[in-house]
Amino acid sequence: MKANVITGTGKASEVFKIIEMDRPSPKVDEVLVRVHYTSVNPADCRIRTIPNPGRSFPAILGYDVFGEVTAVGQQVIGLSPGDNIIASPSLFLPGANAEYVCIKSNMCLKVDELDPKIGAAIPLVGITAYEALFDRLKLKPSHTILIQAGAGGVGHIAIQLAKKTGSRVITTSSRTASLQYCRDVLKADHVINYKEENVAKKVLEITGQKGVDLILDTVGNDTFVSSLGCLRPAGHICTILPVHYDALTGYENLLNNRTISYEYMGMSASSGRHREILKKLVGLIQKNELAPLVSEVYPFDQIHKAHEAIETGHTQGKIVIKVM
């Protein structure tokens, strides 16, 4: 099979290469999937750029898939060759930037009448947004939540889920098109241009100096630290990226009489829950209550270009890759 692999860590233009590899065989609890579409997430870019002694090369990235089951392991129940599925392959195993990928069957959702591009766009960001909002932050209709980077992959799904819950949503962006998208399409209650306004000051103004109940940080590092000034006392912040939370920042918040619950998560929903969450998300999509945005579709041999686009930080929604 053909696979668009990375040969090491480095720039996208330098490390991607299409090579021939043996087609994998499914283990007893896996299915072999012929990949039709995958997508690119910031996680792909981090894996490509951050050295990891435990990762061997060549490595296959790609952590979303829409495809067709072509073979099943002996213990697989409920999936058969010919079924179309969506899934988010494990970040620790070969991904979907290839013609075929093996995935644990309990991570796959059989789908009918779903646009393949949408199917490839939703798994990773959808599971991440859902778990962050409902499992970690315990979002309720009475809450006011700040969702950082609302036009991004996780952000644009999180805003829609939060609005459907009945919560008041404040979000951030900077480009004119993204600001309009968050306001006019996603229907965020307040959209802050973080390049032109002090986000913490604006959030306090919006909330009558109380601060928000919850924050979903999809950016990390400096954005996480600056977000802390937006929280009410006893507020809860969940970030999907590693951060450097130094002693000075903690001391400043103590002086401000803020007790903050902080939680870092990767996509940590157990694989057994992937199917459950994806089923809920697809149900919302089919009822036109959730609209994942596919901003661009790149061909298989241009995955490096998709990575470069993601790294600008200016993409809306998801970038999808047509594999076969």
TrEMBL record:
Residues 11-321 form the Enoyl reductase (ER) domain. GO terms for molecular function: oxidoreductase activity; RNA binding; zinc ion binding. The keyword RNA-binding applies. InterPro entries: ADH-like_N, ER, GroES-like_sf, NAD(P)-bd_dom_sf, Quin_OxRdtase/zeta-crystal_CS, Zinc-ADH_QOR/CCCR. Pfam families: ADH_N, ADH_zinc_N_2. The keyword Cytoplasm applies. It is found in: Cytoplasm. GO terms for cellular component: cytoplasm. Keywords: Cytoplasm, NADP, RNA-binding. Its main location: cytoplasm. Gene3D superfamilies: Medium-chain alcohol dehydrogenases, catalytic domain, NAD(P)-binding Rossmann-like Domain. PANTHER family: QUINONE OXIDOREDUCTASE. Homotetramer. This is Zinc-binding dehydrogenase. It comes from Echinicola soli.
